[in-house]
Amino acid sequence: MAESTIDIKRRIASTKKTGQITSAMQMVSGAKLLKLEDKSQNYQVYAQKIREIVTHLAANKVLELAAMRQHAKSKTGTTEEDILSLNNLLVERPVKKTGYLVITSDRGLVGGYNSNVLRSVMDILNDHESPDDYAVMAIGGMGAEFFKARDIQLAYEYRGVSDMPTFDEVREIVKTMVTMFDDGVFDELYVCYNHHVNSLSSAFRAEKMLPITDLDTDHVQNSETTEYLADPSVDAALNAILPQYAESLIFGSIMDAKTAEHASSMTAMKSATDNANNMIKDLSTQLNRARQAQITTEITEIVGGAAALE
User: Fold this and answer.
1) CATH 3.40.1380.10 boundaries in the chain
2) Quick one: fold of 33-214+226-268?
3) Name one GO molecular function term (predicted).
């Protein structure tokens, strides 16, 4: 009985230490979550503004192309190539290969965060007829190792995104994605990640980022809104701002995914801490029972010894 009591005490001490660690990790993740949520909200102001500008410039470009087409009907020598001068990031082309940028964490202890993303991405990839139909890019070590273990070749991988990502830090990633699209590595790009809903839940998203086709130019053309003057031209302005807009979309997804990661980590650590506390209660109950049994045995031995002396 004495050995059993000692073992239980050791387990209680070990579980308390584990609970202290998970509790500290929960508080750290919670602090990072609050800070990144605030940063994400501020970033949305910038993202909304740049989207508004791009939408207006694209609408002006559509109107310009319509006028050129109308003029081309009465003038020879104007070719379709002269008319279709849209920026490459706005042009939908025949899809021969689809790119998937998969965002996961570099470490574990984040609950079902990684498994949710990777399971959903595998469902998407299995819908393709051949591996030649898609290209996979991985941000985060967990995703990279997952795909390598399944012999899925990565077109690009990046590890070590900080817990509080900055645009300068991930500039290499977003510029690489835009360059790969321009070079024809893939004809469309989807970013796959966990969207942060709230502190307790997240939702998988596979958002089409390239080409940029979700601009509501018709609404701009039919409404009375601020008119933008482009100098030296609309083309020059679009060529300068469209890559920045594409980069802002991808960076926004990375920041959203990191927010969901911190929320998942905080939830997982809270669950681990609660489990540790419940285990300590159960072990304490076992310890008390073991002590009672030990005391009962000792009293029985004393009574039996006294009875033997009578």
Assistant:
1) 33-214+226-268
2) Pyruvate Kinase; Chain: A, domain 1 (3.40.1380)
3) ATP binding
- pLDDT of the chain along its 310 residues, tens only? 445 788 888 888 999 999 999 999 989 988 888 888 888 878 878 877 777 777 777 776 665 555 555 555 544 444 444 434 456 777 778 889 999 999 999 888 888 889 999 999 999 999 988 888 999 999 999 999 999 999 999 999 999 888 888 888 888 888 888 888 888 889 899 999 998 888 788 889 888 888 877 665 555 445 555 566 666 776 777 777 777 788 888 888 888 889 888 888 898 899 899 999 999 999 888 888 888 877 887 788 777 777 777 6
Query: Which residue's structure tokens are 């989807």?
Result: 190
The letter for the amino acid at 151 is D
Q: How far apart are CA 141 and CA 205, in angstroms?
A: 19
pTM score of the predicted model: 0.78
- CATH number of the domain located at residue range(s) 2-26+269-309 in this protein: 1.10.287.80
| 3-state SS class at 102 | strand
